[in-house]
Amino acid sequence: MASQQQLSAIKGAKVLMVGAGGIGCELLKTLALSGFQDIHIIDMDTIEVSNLNRQFLFRQSHVGHSKAKVARDAVLKFRPHMSITPHHANVKDPEFNVEFFKQFNVVLNGLDNLDARRHVNRLCLAADVPLVESGTTGFLGQFYIFYNNKMCQPHGIISAKNAFTDFGFFLLNGHWWELLFFAFRYEA
């Protein structure tokens, strides 16, 4: 269970989430249910039929619409008092520069494009903002925390064989909080 200090940190945090696809849908839902109040989402994609089997915030009627905007609308249905700002844009657009990144306490990356992931990593380094990097390779999922040009603990790999058990335990038992508090502890 989170302490009062941790709950205050969650409520006061400003989070940037890059990617609103398979990982991003799960991240956004978990952030919302964990009490985060101020989230920005950047994603340039629109919803396709092939997304519907794994991106649970989206429905058939959403095909062709912005992932960032639809994800925001879906979460606001069960957490209406949150501030979720969608950006239907490419994270490599000039408006998403170092100054933009500096306003966030932590950045969560759920991208499937290696070049964009590297770009976000460079911006987080320049802005001195912790980055929680996550992704999939085949049937493996992984997450890492980067801060101050170092990969930090905790980090891990979740296998497809144990994905439901490992990932479910990881999320349902508050381990996302631990991960984010680890990133927050570097904040002044």
Automatic annotation (TrEMBL):
**What lineage is this protein's organism placed in?**
Eukaryota, Viridiplantae, Streptophyta, Embryophyta, Tracheophyta
Record's InterPro entries?
Answer: ThiF/MoeB/HesA, ThiF_NAD_FAD-bd, Ubiquitin-activating_enz
Give the THIF-type NAD/FAD binding fold domain ranges. 5-152
Q: Which Pfam families does this UniProt record tie to the protein?
A: ThiF
**From which residue to which does the signal peptide run?**
none
Coiled-coil parts of chain: none
The protein's name = THIF-type NAD/FAD binding fold domain-containing protein
